[in-house]
Design a protein that fits this description.
The protein has about 300 residues and is an alpha+beta fold. It has two domains: about 130 residues, Roll (CBS-domain); about 90 residues, Uridine Diphospho-n-acetylenolpyruvylglucosamine Reductase, domain 3 (2-Layer Sandwich). The strands form four sheets. A five-stranded antiparallel sheet has the order 9-10-13-12-11, covered by helices on one side. β2, α5 and β3 form a beta-alpha-beta unit. The longest helix is centred in the first third of the chain and has 25 residues. It starts with a helix and ends with a strand.
């Protein structure tokens, strides 16, 4: 039915196009080049989410995570300073052997006394022949240490991933504007941001959550907010603190005590334990909204 109508109006359309092109030539204006327009990042993300019937859920999650790397910083996924496993080069030979024998990572941060005096990164597997022999010493150990790589706080995760690839490194130290070490950026953590968790958990990083018999979840205070939002379907704010402990302290504006409860959006938080001025464990419950938008447990 449209074909006859198109033939009737075609002369009118041709004349209008000819008239407009003549005016543009007189004004020395060039019309925009015709052709497919590139999709924006948000449009591409929406396209992936809407194509759920054609993309397996696991692949869909990976694609969305990959697109979100552009808006992710190293602070979002770095290992916090207090969770970094290191080896103290000022220790005796026997203590150095013990630290190497009980370490839980293939790469260790080597320092002198504390993380304020970092020497570099040590590949544990490369020193096994020294460890088993009689020529093991602090000097032979230091000869295997590589200088560390530093990245600024707040740097984009995607750009730093490219930098690690170019330099063929797997770790970097995140520092603030004063040069203080804030955390450790590992290639494994970047990959987990895309494909999900796949490595074994170190004893130095305790379990972040477990189901609570009374309902809800028992959460470790050091749990990253990004992981909580993703795995528990929450909507906790991400523009400020990066951990649950930091969010609670910012909300209360004081150091909390055990037994204190608070509500953030549709989530209730009950502080179960506090140690060393930080929240160690929290009972979290998500409120259900009724038809009148009233929150109920």
């Amino acid at each position: 039915m449209l074909a006859p109508l198109l033939r009737v109006v075609y002369p009118v359309v041709w004349f209008v196009n000819l008239f407009v092109q003549g005016i543009l030539r007189l004004l020395r204006l060039r019309p925009p080049a015709s052709g497919p327009q590139p999709l924006t990042q948000e449009e591409l993300r929406t396209l992936v989410l809407e194509a759920g019937r054609f993309i397996p859920p696991k692949h869909q999650t990976m694609l969305v995570s990959l697109l979100e790397l552009e808006n992710t910083t190293v602070n979002d996924i770095m290992v916090p300073r207090h969770q970094i496993e290191s080896i103290d080069l000022e220790s005796g030979d026997d203590e150095l052997r013990r630290q190497l024998a009980t370490c839980h990572h293939n790469r260790l941060l080597a320092c002198r006394g504390s993380l304020d005096d970092v020497v570099g990164l040590l590949h544990v597997r490369r020193i096994l022949h020294l460890w088993q022999g009689d020529d093991f010493s602090r000097e032979s150990l230091e000869a295997q240490i590589k200088p560390p790589i530093f990245v600024p706080s707040g740097a984009g995760l995607l750009s730093q991933l490219q930098a690690l690839q170019e330099q063929r490194e797997r770790m970097a130290l995140v520092v603030d504007e004063y040069g203080e070490i804030l955390g450790l950026l590992a290639l494994e953590d970047v990959l987990e941001e895309i494909v999900g968790e796949f490595t074994t958990q170190s004893p130095h990083r305790p379990g972040e959550w477990a189901p609570d018999p009374e309902g809800g979840w028992v959460i470790d205070g050091s749990a990253p907010l990004r992981d909580l939002n993703r795995k528990l379907g929450l909507n906790l704010p991400l523009d400020g603190p990066k951990t649950l402990n930091g969010l609670i302290i910012e909300h209360l504006q004081e150091l909390p005590e055990s037994g204190v409860s608070l509500r953030i959006d549709d989530v209730t938080l009950e502080i179960l334990s506090v140690q060393d001025r930080t929240v160690r464990s929290v009972r979290l419950q998500k409120l259900a909204l009724t038809a009148d938008n009233e929150s109920v447990l």
